[in-house]
Amino acid sequence: MNKISVRNVGRIFTDAEGRQVEALRGVNLEIADEVDPLGKDIGEFRVLLGPSGCGKSTILRMIAGLDFPTTGEVYVNGKRVEGPGPDRGMVFQKYTSFAWLTVAENIEYGLKLKGVGERERAETVAHLVQATGLAGFENAYPHTLSGGMQQRVAIARSIAVRPSVLLMDEPFGALDAQTRSGMQDLLMKIWTETAATILFVTHDVGEAVYLADRMYVVSSRPGSIVDEIAVPFARPRTEALKGEARFQELENRALESLRHAAGHGGQVRVTL
Ligand SMILES: Nc1ncnc2c1ncn2[C@@H]1O[C@H](COP(=O)(O)OP(=O)(O)OP(=O)(O)O)[C@@H](O)[C@H]1O
Ligand SMILES: [Mg+2]
After folding, report:
1. Closest residue (by CA) to atom 31 of ligand 1?
2. How far is the CA of 158 from the centre of ligand 2 (A)?
3. Class in CATH terms, 1-84+165-173+195-272
C-alpha cells in the first residue's frame, strides 16, 4: 500500500477578480511504503522543488486535507483524503504553534486530542524537548522565542503524535543560513527515530539535495511533476557532504532541471 498517492490531480482556483487560475494539471506522485528486511517501516524523505507559484503548497495542502483537487484523487495510507487527520502532520513556513499555549502544552496538544494518558504525554514531551534542544523553555510562550526555536516547537508538536506522513512547507525558509543548517541536521536526526514519510517543500536546491532520498521537480503553472531525481548519498549525512564534488554535481543537475521546469509552463522564466 502506498503512503501517498496523488493521481492525475488538477486544481483550478478562482481569483479575487473571478478569473480562473489553473494551478495544477495532471499531477502524479506515488510514495510507496517501504519496509526493511525485518519488516520495519522505513520512512522516506521526499522533496518537492519548483519555482514560486507552481503549486507546491497546494499539493501539500491537498495531501493534508486542507484543500481539494478539482480533478483527480489523493490517497494517504490507502484512504481517500477527505480532511485533516492525525495520520498527517503539517509544518508551515510561518510559525504555527498556538500562541496561548506554552512550549510543553503545544507539544502535548495533539496527544491530548488523541486521548493519550498523562504519563505517556509527559514522557513524550520530555523526550521531544530534549531532542529539539528546547530544555529549559518548557514553560515559555512561543512568541518569546527566536524564529528557529519557534520552528523547533512546531516540529516537535507535529511529530509528537507520530504521524505516518509529515508535510513540511518551506519550514526553514524564514531562518538565517546558520540556523537553517542546524535545523536540517536536527530534522534528519528526529526523522530517523520516527520512520515517518516526509514530504518537504523548498526552493533551495542545496537543502533539497542534502535532505532528500528523492526530489520531484514541479514545473511552473500549471504545475505538474516533470522530473524525479534520486539522491544516493548514505546516511547519516553531515555538513562535509555539501563540500564534496558529487554533492555539487547533483546540485547542478537539480538546478538545471529546475531552470528547465521554470520555463516549462511558459508563464515566467525564473532566473535562479
Ligand atoms: N486560494 C486560492 N485562490 C486563488 N488562487 C490560489 C489560491 N491558492 C493558490 N492559488 C494560486 O495557485 C498557484 C499555486 O499556488 P501555491 O501557493 O500552491 O504555489 P507555491 O508553489 O507554493 O508557491 P511559493 O513557492 O511562492 O510558495 C498560484 O498561482 C497561486 O496564486
Ligand atoms: Mg508555497
Report:
1. 53
2. 19
3. alpha beta
